[in-house]
Write a structure and sequence with these properties.
Blueprint: H1 3-30, H2 44-57, H3 60-80
Helix pairs in contact: 1-3, 2-3
Length: 81
Amino acid sequence: MNSIKERLLDHAGVRDFAEAMKAKLDLKREQGRGGWHDPEQCSLERLYILLADHVRKGDMVDIGNLAMMIWNRERDAKDKS
């Protein structure tokens, strides 16, 4: 497979996964969930616990969303230090 085709497949995969992640986040927000961005509402430790739970369950979209949340929280903490 050539590198251009591989790049297109990579980008399409990321796009499709991101769309699934956004749809799941929207659904959960409509159900009253949220607050991952606020350390007072949801600790980083709690996000790691939820990630491990969802790895065991095998829900790849939830795993992706939790990884995104952790990544953003850790990036924000680095930016503040």
